[in-house]
Amino acid sequence: MITFILVFFVITSCTSSEQLINSDWYEVETEHFRIVTNDNPKRIQKLAVDLEKFRVFARNYIHFSPDQQKLTIYALSDRMSFEGMSGVENAGRTIGRFQNTSHGSFALLNLKGNKYLPDNPARQTLFHEYTHFLTHSHSQQNYPYWFSEGVAEVFSTVAFDKNNNFRVGDIPVDRAISLSRSKVLPLGALLEAVPGAINARDTEALYASGWMLSHWLIFDAERLEGLNKYLSAYNNGADPVAALPAALGMTFEELESLYQKLRKTDFQYYKGLFSSKEVSESINVQALENHKAIAEIAHFMAITGQEAETLKEFIAYAEQKAVSSSALLSALAIAEAKQENYSSAREILDEIAEKNRDETSYLEAAAMVFLYEALAAGKMDDVQKFKKIRDAYVTLVNTKGDVPAYWHELAITMQVLGYPRSQYVKILEQAYLRAPRDINIAWWYAHELYLSRDTEMFIRVTQPLLMQITSLESRKHLSSMMVELQPAGRPQVEQGAAKNGLGQLLSEYRFLSENKALAIAMDYRGAYVVGYIENSASQSEANEVALQACEAQREQHQVKDRCELYLEEEVIVGAAETSQVL
Asked: Concatenated DSSP letters for 416-453?
């Protein structure tokens, strides 16, 4: 008799929550970078050292100004971990991403990379985005879209060997694939492209074409000189298509012919001796307590917009593993508030024990929930409530002053409470200095600088914004202010001055006749309304009518700040002692 023994193999799959919570977590910290990982920390140390080297390389060889803020990087051991922190959709498209938030700048890396690519470009993704961070944070120049992406791709493959040699110029593997498939933009389309104006396929081609053209220009002394002339001309408002061949001393047709003949494979790379004397050698590796690592992951998921349902699953499994905490509930309250589920957020906060309500995690969540619920409901006349919110943010700023969001939300609260502009703008400036690439902070700060007529700082803040913002309408609006603010002879940053926007409106105001006034309301979102009048019987009447016109629009468009008189004739109100004029 033959007996058949049936063996059943039970295949179980690990969820992203289980993978993250069951991992051992480590922190690898240098002077300028903090890397949190569930991978082998020894493997991560080389990445940390290379980042410190790249920071010095950027300053010495490509003259980028290193940012002083410490960058936090989550280096994740596999796709499942990456998916848990980044979201399913992001994990399917990328193996790494850079996240600018009001809590600082973060990078996520899937260390296993992409199984369909012959190399692991996670490190390249990090270097690409970090190049953007360096070029956009403090640059006074506005780079064309193709060059901004192209130069980031060129320096994404910088490598250092054990003998302190650097290597630069290798083609990123995904760009090599694009070029081998002839995904190249026509030269004219490449030179005139702006963010948000081309489709996904053409964007992929722009990255590859931008890399190819940037590589050709950068690594030749004569062409590099022409490139610098082109960038200068571009920043002076020259036509983006005609300016490059002119700077290189050739016709468009001649440049186009050379462009079409550029090799699509086997690009040259370059080596040089890298001086490591300026590289910080301080490196600290330590294990993270599991409950602290889990709380940090949950907080990151919340502030970057992960769905509350995803966090609920994460927290439910954490409770099974006995690593739940008030910090996890606080993160969930933030996630609910970001989805405007304010009643649910308040219920979650009520679950947190009184003894834990002096913790930073609770104070942050409670202040944010109550502030944004009041703003969303338009209930901005409860002075006592807003004073309590203000006091909570003062405590947070005094406790953890390195968190930009606390300064930002304190500035919002001060604006609602009617503090003078000069006071809340000082607080807003502190938020910007800690998170120069957070769009919401920079957008508001740029508008306040514009109203203050601070040309130099306005340009410094607006330049990177023009590269980050994809909305054409928003870009035109910023450009209108840039053009209006700059005196004659100063460079104009974008070809084709905007025909609308606040800058255009103030330009038109100049041509109005006498007895004129302009009132404006501008809130923390950069949303604004303007009321103005000319040919009034008197200046006092002009002031009153301008305020009335502004107020009528403010209610209609739900701008959340009060209307104030900004201009009497062309003198800025409150700046008469310095004769500051439009």
From this structure: HTT--HHHHHHHHHHHHHH-TT-HHHHHHHHHHHHHTT
